[in-house]
Amino acid sequence: MAPDKLSTDFMIPRAIIKPARALYIAEFQRVVVAMGEAHVEPALRQSDGTLATDGELQLPYRMDLLPEIGGPSVMVDSPIRAQIEPREMQRGPVQVSVTSFVWDYANISILGLPGNASWEPLRQWFLRWFDTEDEDPVNEEGLYGVAHFMSDPKEIPGGVSITIDFGSAPIESFDSLVHALVSMCPRRVEVG
């Protein structure tokens, strides 16, 4: 199933996710205005223009802001953690738990993965929301609606964890993330 055409049984109620994204986007917009001239959400590229990739999953990375006059990149952080009432949902055979989290630094635990699990669904999810060709236009928020970063999987008791900076990606990116995770057949997914 394409990430853009998810069935409603994979959708997390918007009221759960909106506060985390809204806090980050408001802070991002505030910093953009305060900085003035800056490249917004630029992808890190090599000298030949190709995306710079890194890690086990060979994923690209987006900076938050890069001043046009030079100087170091600027990282935008959510000012506080959105308070979300913990929610448990069943997605097919997978239990999904969502608690308070930060949109730009979401910790996700993937528990009980089968030994032959492929990371390709998660990798493809990230690349789709990253916009590898920089084709997404500026949206009504003044941003590009793109994900910024996903870490390589790190072993934890009973599974693995990843960290995701959703950047300015829309709420739908969260729904399609859950879909990608469920397709990997874990026993449980915990966000927060």
Overview of the molecule:
This protein has 192 residues and is of the alpha+beta class. The protein has one domain. It is 24% helix and 20% strand. The chain is built from 3 helices and 9 strands. Helix 2 packs antiparallel against helix 3 (171-183).
What can be said about this structure in brief?
The protein has 192 residues and is α+β, with helices and mostly antiparallel strands.
How far apart are the first and last residues' alpha carbons, in Å?
26 Å
Helix content: 10-25%
Radius of gyration, whole Å: 17 Å
Count of the separate structural domains:
1
- In terms of DSSP E residues, the strand content is 15-25%
Structural features:
192 residues; globular; single chain; disordered N terminus; 9 strands; 24% helix; alpha+beta; 3 helices
Helices and strands, with pairings:
Layout: H1 14-35, E1 38-40, E2 65-67, E3 87-91, E4 94-98, E5 106-111, H2 120-130, E6 149-150, E7 154-156, E8 159-165, H3 171-183, E9 188-191
Parallel strand pairs: 4-9
Antiparallel strand pairs: 1-2, 3-4, 5-8, 5-9, 6-8, 7-8
